[in-house]
């Protein structure tokens, strides 16, 4: 008989293996990061914020809620291929209840957000049964190299170098000014820093900054993953947009990762940011995965 319980610290490897198995069903390959999971468990209260669904001792579902104030997020790993019918709801319900408990004011409203792969119909149905609605769609854009990517030739007044700690505030404001499209909510700098540098994946070599006459005008913040290069954030100052600078920066990252032996580079983009979707397609990237962003007021 399936049962819901909180995890023990020593079960983290079993949980990660389940997450990777879930990824493989949805995407054809593992996609989770062990360092991210470690960081999430360090920040979470395992006896209140995390739930496992087990059937005869075997993990067949996982959920975690995090956040504060009026913004909360749920991680949900469950799939009809290995999660008993009707039991995905049992992972969603306690996460919703916990988010309500974490609100600073019981009478105020807050938002709980979860991302679900479009191919995972069972999870989507369960989320809708529990009052979630689709807010927007997100795409994974990817390019698979079919030949050599040439090094980018930068004009003399441009300087390309790795990120340094002294760049943080200027970089944050560049990201903030660039990501001002509809519906995007820029987190406070402390939260931005925490999520960008977490998981042990940060390497300044892959956080590339571009300056023109000393002014920060572009940034490609990325991770060298096991199988590909993952661009977490790409930003170009407004005064240089539409002049080919963004595609130059992106091609620079393609070259960097190809030189490191990677065969692909990918990134995420929201469907409401149609200009960005069109831009990535023009430089040869294609949609490889589709995710629904579900939201619920609590």
Summarize the structure.
With 298 residues, the chain is an alpha+beta fold. Helices cover 32% and strands 32% of the residues.
Describe it for me?
There is one protein chain. The chain has 298 residues and is an alpha+beta fold. 32% of the residues lie in helices and 32% in strands. It has eight helices and twelve strands. The protein has helices spanning 12-27, 34-43, 88-102, 121-129, 168-178, 189-197, 245-259, 274-282, and strands at residues 3-5, 50-55, 58-68, 71-77, 111-117, 133-144, 158-162, 207-212, 215-224, 229-236, 264-270, 286-297. Strands 1-2-3-4-5-12-6-11-10-9-8-7 form a twelve-stranded mixed beta sheet. Helix 7 links the parallel strand 10 (229-236) and strand 11. It is globular and about 65 Å long. The model has no long low-confidence stretch (mean pLDDT 94).
**Strand count:** 12
Backbone structural class: alpha+beta
Radius of gyration over alpha carbons? 20 Å
Strand content: 25-35%
Helix tally equals: 8
Q: Sketch the topology as an H/E string, one letter per element.
A: EHHEEEHEHEEHHEEEHEHE
Can you summarize the main beta sheet? 12 strands, mixed
Helix-residue proportion? 25-40%
Distance between the termini: 30 Å
Mean pLDDT: 94
Strand order of the largest sheet: 1-2-3-4-5-12-6-11-10-9-8-7
Shape from CA axes?
A: globular
Give unreliable regions as ranges.
none
């Amino acid at each position: 008989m399936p049962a819901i319980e909180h995890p023990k610290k020593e079960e983290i490897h079993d949980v990660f293996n389940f997450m990777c198995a879930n990824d493989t069903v949805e995407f054809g390959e593992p996609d989770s990061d062990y360092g991210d999971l470690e960081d999430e468990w360090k920040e979470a209260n395992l006896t209140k914020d995390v739930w496992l669904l087990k059937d005869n001792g075997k993990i067949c579902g996982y959920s975690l809620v995090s956040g504060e104030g009026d913004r909360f997020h749920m991680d949900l790993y469950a799939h009809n291929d290995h999660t008993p019918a009707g039991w995905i709801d049992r992972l969603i319900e306690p996460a919703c209840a916990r988010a309500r408990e974490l609100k600073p004011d019981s009478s105020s409203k807050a938002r709980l957000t979860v991302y679900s792969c479009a191919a995972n119909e069972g999870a989507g149905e369960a989320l809708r049964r529990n009052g979630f609605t689709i807010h927007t769609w997100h795409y994974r854009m990817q390019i698979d190299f079919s030949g050599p990517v040439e090094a980018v030739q930068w004009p003399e007044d441009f300087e390309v170098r790795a990120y340094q700690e002294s760049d943080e505030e200027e970089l944050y404001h560049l990201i903030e000014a660039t990501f001002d499209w509809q519906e995007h909510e820029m987190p406070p700098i402390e939260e931005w820093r925490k999520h960008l540098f977490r998981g042990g994946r940060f390497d300044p070599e892959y956080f590339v900054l571009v300056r023109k006459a000393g002014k920060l005008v572009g940034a490609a913040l990325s991770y060298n993953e096991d199988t590909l290069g993952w661009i977490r954030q790409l930003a170009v100052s407004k005064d240089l947009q539409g002049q080919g600078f963004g595609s130059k920066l992106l091609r620079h990252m393609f070259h960097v990762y190809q030189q490191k032996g990677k065969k692909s580079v990918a990134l995420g983009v929201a469907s409401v940011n149609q200009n960005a979707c069109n831009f990535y397609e023009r430089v040869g990237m294609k949609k490889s995965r589709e995710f629904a962003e579900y939201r619920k007021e609590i």
